[in-house]
Fold this protein.
Amino acid sequence: MTSPRAASVSFVATLVLAALVIAGCSGGPHPEKGPGASSKASGAKVWQPGRPDTMGPVVAIVGSRHITRHEVDSLIATAPVGIQAQLREEEGYKEAVNRLVTQEIFYQAAKRSGVEQDSAYQAQLKQSAKDLMLRRYYEIKLAALPEISDDSSRAYYSAHQEDFSVLPRARVRHIQLPTKAKALEVRKALVKGALWDATAAKRSTDLATKDNGGLLGWVTQGSPMVTGIGNAPSIRDAAFKAPIGDVSQPIKGPKFWHLIRVDEREDTAVQPYDTVKDRIVTRMKLERREKYGDALTDSLRQFYNVTVFDDSIRAAVAPNKTAGDLFKEAQAAATPLARIELYRKLVKEFPSDSVSVQARFMIGFTYAEELSEYDAARKEFEDFIKTYGDTELGASAKWMLENMEKPAPPLEDDDGTGKGSDKKQAPPPPAPKSGSSTRSP
């Protein structure tokens, strides 16, 4: 058990835990003077507990705030069940009291500093109140739903038999031995008539089962896990092959050798309704909760005439993208088709921007040079020339129409000088500067 002194070292953890678990447990302020108050002639008046009140004895005081047993008990009740007994002992109880004290001193300090007027706090408080309200509304609506009837749960049981079936299983005993030779020796004695339980108690090295006849319990056909042994598919398989009551041949387990005896086997069976009824009702409530939540949401959206504007959402996601930004995005796209799609998007969104002229040219250029789809490229260039035929890019488009399907010239001249020939494609237009448009070519 961690002592209050050790717990105080973890200052932040203590503060956070106290703040989370005691919300709503305050016993309220008490008058600074009250039953049991005392004073000294030469000092300030200090309150001391005099008699129990309705909330139990006062266990600590912070300013004028009294912390009572009721609050400490409420805090302990929220702790994991396994440590509640320790917290009710004197040392643990002091730790719980000190956590409440830590939470209270910071609460009072926050109030004194004016945090209640802080705009961020007010916004968070408003949001928390909203969240609590809608959550409570949903809980109230769920609580109004009728209970799951017995007829409904039985119908669910009948329709989902496979969910409540038990796989074949075998009840197995074993005698664990260190070597195969020892296992053969013990098996020989058992076959000759030695009593199984007595032999297990005398020879088995499994201390957990040797005194109860080596009982391992049920082994399931669908799982290789064997209680007390671990992952042992060889034992699992033997449990469904060995004749009931016979002593098996030595079986190698994960660490040792084993002789097993099968007491009984059960085929696949459906669990009785009464044994799974609670599981069925819980499952049906969860399924109904999900469906009801969707139905309630849809009905409320309809009632309040909800409309979602997809175009506005797209604009909100990228509100500051310029034509130049989209051009750069298109150039950086991973595939030619993705680049073409982005160039078209640019042209659609910024039809009168000069960058769109370059984008239109690049659509045809990409079809021709990267995809070799010349028919598509030809259409793009012909449409481009109709509007921009007198520009520099228009001249490039005309050149592309004339040369894009011609084979590339050789890398060397006929005389072997090694001078490379010019490439056939026209150079792509320069990328516009970010955030601005270039002049029309």
Notes: Confidence is low (pLDDT under 50) at residues 1-42, 418-441.
